[in-house]
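**User:** Once you have settled down, spend some time on the protein underneath, comparing sequence with structure tokens, and judge whether sequence predicts the tokens.
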Amino acid sequence: MPANRSAVKRSLALIAALPLLTLAACGYGSDSKDEGTSKVAAGAEKIDGLDSVKIGYFGNLTHATALVGNQKGFFQKQLGATKAEYAVFNAGPSEIEALNSGSIDIGWIGPSPSINGYTKSKGTNLRIIGGSASGGVKLVVNPDKIKSLKDVKGKKIATPQLGNTQDVALLNWIADQGWKVDADSGKGDVSVVRTDNKVTPDAYKNGSIDGAWVPEPTASKLVAEGGKVLLDEADLWPDNKFVITNIIVSQKFLKAHPDVVEAVLKGSVETNKWINANPDEAKASANAQLKIDSGKELPAAVIDPAWKSIQILNDPLASTLSTEADHAVKAGLLEKPDLDGIYDLTLLNKVLEAEGESTVDDAGLGAK
């Protein structure tokens, strides 16, 4: 869908302002409560003499590696006496702002905030150092109003935030149908309504929206309210895989403390291996951490279907990041980005080799 230059500039200006708006509302994120899983083992030593490493993530099941790694103490095990400290975020822009300010060092985050953060800093603020999850995103609709994909035209469909990963995906899908929507306002053949995931189920119940393109567990919450899955985004991708969660690190922190970053990646690989070997126990662990972080766990009717739709992996699926960037450009939300150097998978591949696992590829976008 072509966008004129003024529209692109307006979009970029609005996206640039989002971190400040989000921070004004909720600060850098809520601290994760320490329930004892991150206690330092007796006799452990600090890595690089560092007292702590600050780790950020979202309270989404697509961030299961961070949830479980925190709850089960896998990160702390690898960090020795260097304390793992956690912050929970509601949106990507606020996490990027926290990374830029030094409030966190490493974070689990979606592809669109990674791309936006990297390009706005002209490649100076972050590196993607690993993958974490694929899938877990669905278009859920009111079956009384929308019975087929063509019925989406003229309806109100929610996404979590202007320019976020699901927003870009919906705008791209709309364009592929031959329909037109102004990316800034969300007005057009489909009304794109930017709605926080926390309030999307209520908006669905009261009829403010007719459906939503959202990650888990929000998608399954809508299904529990009577919604129907009209489209699983994984079906739009080769091999049904696309990056939904990356691991990023501050370039400054990576340069100063590579051994600490490597320890966190060891914890991530160990966590992913345990999740995939123990899916039911891992689901319960993720739910337990959600309760610690938010005060509320997910009911079985929500977490069971949501958990099944997410693939936990180490591969950042770098080629799909490039495709998602192209989608943002097509939607008029981003000028053609230079993503050279956005990845540094050196430490991850070192860890994977040591574990006897397959190494991963950066699709030619690695740091030189």
